[in-house]
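Tokens in:
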């Protein structure tokens, strides 16, 4: 009976995430193309593909190999008020940046060279790819800041280089998004996102040091939080 209930929960979570993923792709398309006033937005399509391909591949991989992580990623509400506000502000800045990039394209406010756009798309793709490798290495990579019962320190894969590789992937993804969309103006809201990630990271480290056995030793072994040889 318990096994059947667990299977039901997994299938329910999968359906919910599939619906959520579909909504994300629709909303992303609306935010990219509606402000631009046209679907003839080459930078927008390249960016859309740079996100859609690795995110769909990640979803399919987790669907098959790690449904428990899918369930963890389905939890979105932070327990602390400060983190709730940070997450909301990050969402607002991300959406505002997409809208600003679309408007920039519509009114031709920026002239980003094609080479820069293509290089930025590569980095957007690589940023999301790094997040995929984090998911593959760490089944406890929850969307919210928490320590679960039985959770263990992960020190292999990208975690051997920095303590927060998922945040590193997200920062790369965010910083190159405006250029991938052909907008200099959109750099303004997107440049604020790494600062919020740093605040979030520091709070998470405090929790992990206090509640996750072995994390303090891991910090001594892996010195850099976010950027190798820098910080």
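Residues out:
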């Amino acid at each position: 009976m318990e096994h059947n209930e667990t299977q039901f929960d997994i299938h329910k979570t999968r359906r919910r995430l599939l619906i959520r993923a579909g909504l994300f792709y629709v909303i992303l398309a609306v935010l990219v193309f509606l402000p631009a006033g046209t679907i003839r937005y080459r930078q927008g399509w390249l960016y859309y593909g740079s996100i859609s391909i690795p995110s769909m591949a990640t979803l399919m991989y987790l669907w098959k190999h790690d449904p428990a992580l899918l369930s963890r990623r389905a939890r979105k509400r932070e327990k602390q008020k400060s983190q709730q506000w940070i997450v909301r502000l990050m969402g607002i800045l991300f959406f505002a940046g997409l809208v600003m990039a679309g408007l920039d394209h519509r009114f031709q406010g920026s002239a980003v060279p094609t080479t820069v756009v293509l290089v930025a798309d590569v980095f957007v793709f690589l940023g999301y790819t790094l997040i995929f490798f984090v998911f593959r290495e760490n089944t406890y990579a929850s969307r919210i800041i928490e320590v679960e019962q039985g959770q263990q320190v992960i020190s292999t894969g990208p975690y051997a280089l920095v303590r927060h590789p998922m945040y590193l992937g997200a920062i790369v993804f965010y910083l190159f998004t405006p250029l991938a969309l052909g907008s200099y103006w959109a750099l303004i809201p997107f440049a604020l996102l790494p600062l919020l990630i740093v605040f979030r990271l520091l709070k998470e480290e405090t929790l992990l040091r206090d509640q996750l056995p072995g994390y303090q030793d891991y910090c001594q072994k892996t010195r850099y939080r976010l950027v190798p040889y820098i910080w």
